[in-house]
Design brief:
- This protein has about 140 residues and is mainly alpha-helical.
- The protein has one helix and no strands.
- The termini are far apart.
Length: about 140
Amino acid sequence: MSAGQIAALIAAGAFVLLVLLLAIPLIKLGRTLDEATIAIRKAHTNTDPIFSEANTTLTRVNTQLERVDGITSNTQAVTGNVSALTSVFTATLGGPLVKAAAFSYGVSKALKARRKIKGETDGKHARRGKRKGATS
């Protein structure tokens, strides 16, 4: 054997060794890809029930939201009615109540002015000590 043939055998052996060393990671990578494919298939088969449950849940939520919308519109109508009733009450009783309050205030001021002119002290509680037979 010549030196060129020995070098070729060494190169061929090194190439076989390189192929063997690279084959191990490639085989492991192939197994990993197989496992990933199986996991993707399982996930795909399990998503159909999840999506159908999500669809059912969304349908129920939409039904409840329609009910809430009805309740909200009824509440808005009640609020408008209460506002109208308050306006009617204020218009009907507000004026006379203000007049009655003004009248009672005027009478109170007039009585105080009258007592002041007569020299009496203010209020009926101040007169309690001046009763007949009262001891102080």
